[in-house]
Design brief:
This protein has 170 residues and is mainly alpha-helical. It has 4 helices and 3 strands. The mean pLDDT is 90.
Length: 170
């Protein structure tokens, strides 16, 4: 019984971190919705803008032009990923880097699921642009993204790092 309690107690901090990601993501999106009209852009620096764009697809607008089924597909995918990640956190909560990575991915995934449920699309607002990106992205503008996307990306990088470190130790 003590092992079960220890595993459960390891879960709470990671779920708390995921909740912080969700809250910061939704707060920033609410601020953008209240301050920007769709398509608005505000220059912050020579390489960074705050914008308001809606993405009905996934990363890099994948499936954005589909007929609407993608909304429910991505909601379902996010919910399945949530169940799997919580299960993994419950089993491996003592592995700090691994659990940090999973918590970031969990918070980001749920932040975007909430958008899809509330709005039918994801609210993106961070836009970076550099001339050296022009051969890859139109005008050098990297696709707009949000806090949830950032958390997912950082989490994925940390998962790779965790695996590389695990292989190196093994």
């Amino acid at each position: 019984m003590a092992a079960k309690k220890a595993a459960g107690s390891n879960l709470l901090p990671w779920l708390g971190l995921a909740l912080l990601i969700i809250l910061s993501d939704q707060l920033t999106k609410t601020l953008i919705l209240g301050s920007f009209q769709l398509g608005d852009s505000h220059t912050v620096t020579s390489f960074f803008n705050l914008v308001r764009v809606h993405n009905a697809g996934a990363a890099f607008s994948f499936l954005a032009d589909a007929s609407g089924w993608q909304r429910w597909f991505f909601v379902g995918l996010g919910l399945v990923a949530t169940v799997f990640i919580v299960w993994m956190l419950k089993r491996h909560g003592e592995q700090r880097l691994f659990s940090l990575a999973l918590s970031l991915i969990l918070g980001g995934a749920l932040g975007n699921v909430i958008d899809r449920l509330l709005h039918g699309h994801v609210i993106d607002f961070l836009q970076f642009h550099w001339d050296w990106l022009a051969p890859i992205f139109h005008g050098g503008y990297f696709p707009s993204f949000n806090i949830a996307d950032s958390a997912i990306t950082v989490g994925a990088v940390l998962l790779i790092l965790d695996e590389l470190l695990r292989v190196r130790r093994g």
